[in-house]
Request: fold
Amino acid sequence: MVPADLQIALAAHKHFLEGRPNGQRLSMRGAMLTGTDLERQRLSMAMLAGADLSRSRMMRSFLDGADLFGANLTGVDLTEATMIGADLRGANLAKARMQGANLERADLRAGQLVTWVSARQISRSQSADLAGADLRNAKFGAADLSFANLSNANFKGADFQSATLFAANLNGADLSGANFGRARLKGALLNNCKVEGADFRGADLRQAELRNVDLSAAKIEGAQLPEDDGKAQREPLPPELRQHLGHHAEWIQTNGETGARLDQAKMVLHGINLAGLDLSGACFSQSDLTLSDLADAKLCLVQFDGARLGRVRLTGADLSGANLAGAVLDMANLAAAKLGPMALVTPDGKPAGRDWPVDLRGASLRGADLRSADLRQAKLDGANFEGANLGGADLRGVDMSKVNVKGASLNGTLFDPS
Reply:
């Protein structure tokens, strides 16, 4: 049964979607709608954040672009529903029936939930929960399920092409026949998963946990596997750090409105794998990241001042505007890294008309590989490049008068005309 007031709201929402007079977008944030029959209803763009829709019937309903942030959808029947581009951050979909549902481009990342207790604001992060859900043949193309709980769910024949599942928990899930082509599964938990006939071609599975998983039954051509970086035995990311990374991703996504900046100052992070992540604006001041992997990571404006980065892999990383003053990067690999200026913007996203250069003053890069690196306008006073390879590097706009390049390879290095 659909309550009378909800029927009226649904009719007005239908007019809203059709652009007809007297239309009004459905807004029932936090509403108690447990067990409601919403089969085949047109709920696209509806505002249902925090609503309790548990055990409701929503088969073949249309929820494209709907706001379901933090909603309770436990035990809901969403068979063949469309939820393209829906906001499901922090939503609880445990044991939901979603066979054949379309969640392409949906946002299922952790959500930052705020509650008030005794006049005190309490903020907590809550991952989207699809544990034990039936998602056979569901579509997740280009969806973001970072940090989501997908444990023991049934994903037989599901489509995850180009989806992001960074650090997601898929332990015990049935992935038989699922398509993870070009999906990003770095740091994901896939222990005890069934993968018969699954397609992981071109997927990023670096640092994923795959205990008791027989990949010989899956297609893995072109996939980046945990052993590809030679660190198969390395411990996975600590749970607390995984949580902090999720908060940082949200901080970036919302321009600082929610989430929290990653602050790992003065931490010991030996051999950690953060390759390919967007860590822009994070703080690693005076931290020890010796032998860590940050290849292809986005590290714009990151604070590495005084950090120990010996033998770190930074190939292709974007360090535009980063602070590396006094950092130790001896024998680090910075081939093709971007260490040029960062173009600053105003709060509304418009160019501020000035750049922020990389600061390498007093840094040690002895024996480092900087081939083809972009170091334009970098501050290098007191930097030590002794024995480094600067072949093909771009050092235009740099004052080299107080830089040590003794024994460095400068073949093809670009300098300002003398």
